[in-house]
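Project standup — Tuesday

K.O.: blocked on the structure for the chain from last sprint. Re-posting the sequence here as requested.
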Amino acid sequence: MKIVQLRENDWQQVKEIYEEGIATGDATFETESPSWEKWNESHLPFARLIAQQENEILGWAALSKVSDRCVYGGVAEVSVYVKSSARGRGIGTLLLEALIKESEANNIWTLTAGIFPENVSSIHIHEKAGFRIFGRRERIGKMNGKWRDTLQLERRSKVVGVD
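H.V.: unblocked you, prediction finished:
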């Protein structure tokens, strides 16, 4: 398995993995996957990664802006998704570690994540990668008629923005 840059022609497999995450009900508030154009527009142009074994994509990770304000130019939100048949093999950890390296190479000093409390495995891989839980957004949004909380996590770089 290798971690490589995500390209537009990877979108169909990436979209299928995203849809598996949506179907769990514990990965995102989204109810359907976007088009390539919308996804491409909403994610930063760097640090778009896939875990690939031969021609099969096993997972993906990418960054989104948290704000258009210039003061937050070094802050990004993390997305990590792993194909259901590949979960439990450390792929999420590898993707997140590679995403951290890519983010720092592109002058990102803080990474954030909003994770449903029920998504224990995602919380675990983020904490293992140096993220800390700093808050809980209670009843932040409704999903299928039920209020949901999210835990707020962040990781401050030890090499970017340290002065």
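K.O.: great, moving the ticket to review. The beta strands are 2-5, 49-53, 56-65, 75-82, 110-115, 132-143, 146-156. The first strand starts at residue 2 and ends at 5.
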